[in-house]
Amino acid sequence: MSEKQLHPSVQQFKDFVKTQPHLIQEVRRGDTTWQRLFEDWYLLGEEDTRFNSNPSAGKQEEASTDSSKSLWMSTVMNSLKNMDQNQVQGYIANISQALGTIQGVISQFSPSSGGSQNASTKATKQPTGPFSFRKD
User: Where is this region: Disordered (predicted)?
Assistant: First the structure.
């Protein structure tokens, strides 16, 4: 079988990763993905501090990531505090009505399922009482 030719940038990334074994370990630990590494490498370049073989640089990045997560979380919490609950409840009610209307339209245009027909045929096959008698 002939090997499929890789895009030149992908081949360059593979060569770069071979020189940076700590990146392979990051992916194996689940700290990042190959896609994420490739995007960072493509956008930031090989000289970025992200790709330093110094592990302390990674710890600094993790600390900045944690602080950005906590900043985002505090922003979300402040937004939740400032919301008018009655207004949010009104929005939810409007969305619920819209979804109900959409479901009604879809059910009108969908082909009738055999479920209702099967229920009526089952009712005629089953006896009405505890004993099965036939009329002569």
Answer: 49-70, 107-136
